[in-house]
């Protein structure tokens, strides 16, 4: 029953019902698949940065990690698409305090598709606030298809961008997703 509640609150995306393909993933030195999948990184409040092209499995893997943490360890996880404006909406409704309180209770925060679209100034500042709040107290998984050198296009302010990157990469592991889009490969193979 508790697990069902955790799953509902996590707002995870739907993922394919198939085994995960690790062949084109470059793990950080000293990091194993089990370390990632079993959520060992959360015990040390470490972050994972998933970097790679569109459709390479970043969201799929972050969702698998979340499912493992909730089902096997009863951990609290929340999944947000960075472009969803959830922070701005909470702020406009006067619910930002409640929103931040919910994030404080998490074991893992997943920010999917960071950089997919630029953030508005206020959204960027609020996201910085969340990342700062999580710094050294809980783990974050960020999925992105942009190298750090292009994150200023997302946050719109070089100083804010530098501060976000600094907090995320300290105590983090960069996981690189190589190869073509799995969706593209699947559509070609079905022809």
From TrEMBL:
SUPFAM superfamilies: P-loop containing nucleoside triphosphate hydrolases. This is DNA replication protein DnaC. Gene3D superfamilies: P-loop containing nucleotide triphosphate hydrolases. GO terms for molecular function: ATP binding. It comes from the Bacteria. One of its GO terms (biological process) is DNA replication. Residues 44-180 form the AAA+ ATPase domain. PANTHER family: ATP-BINDING PROTEIN RV3427C IN INSERTION SEQUENCE-RELATED, CHROMOSOMAL REPLICATION INITIATOR PROTEIN DNAA. InterPro entries: AAA+_ATPase (IPR003593), IstB_ATP-bd (IPR002611), P-loop_NTPase (IPR027417). Pfam families: IstB_IS21.
């Amino acid at each position: 029953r508790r697990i069902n509640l955790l799953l509902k609150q996590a707002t995870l995306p739907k993922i394919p019902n198939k085994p995960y393909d690790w062949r084109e993933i470059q793990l950080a030195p000293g990091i194993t698949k089990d370390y990632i999948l079993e959520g060992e990184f959360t015990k040390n409040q470490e972050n994972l940065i998933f970097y790679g092209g569109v459709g390479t499995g970043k969201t799929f893997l972050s969702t698998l990690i979340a499912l493992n943490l909730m089902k096997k360890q009863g951990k609290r996880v929340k999944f947000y698409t960075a472009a969803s404006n959830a922070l701005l909406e909470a702020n406009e409704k006067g619910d930002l305090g409640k929103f931040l309180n919910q994030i404080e209770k998490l074991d893992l925060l997943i920010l999917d598709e960071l950089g997919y679209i630029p953030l508005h100034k206020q959204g960027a500042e609020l996201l910085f606030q969340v990342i700062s709040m999580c710094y050294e107290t809980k783990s974050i998984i960020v999925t992105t298809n942009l190298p750090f050198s292009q994150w200023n296009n997302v946050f719109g302010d070089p100083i804010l961008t530098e501060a976000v990157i600094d907090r995320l990469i300290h105590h983090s592991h960069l996981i690189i997703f190589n190869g073509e889009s799995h969706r593209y490969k699947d559509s070609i193979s079905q022809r």
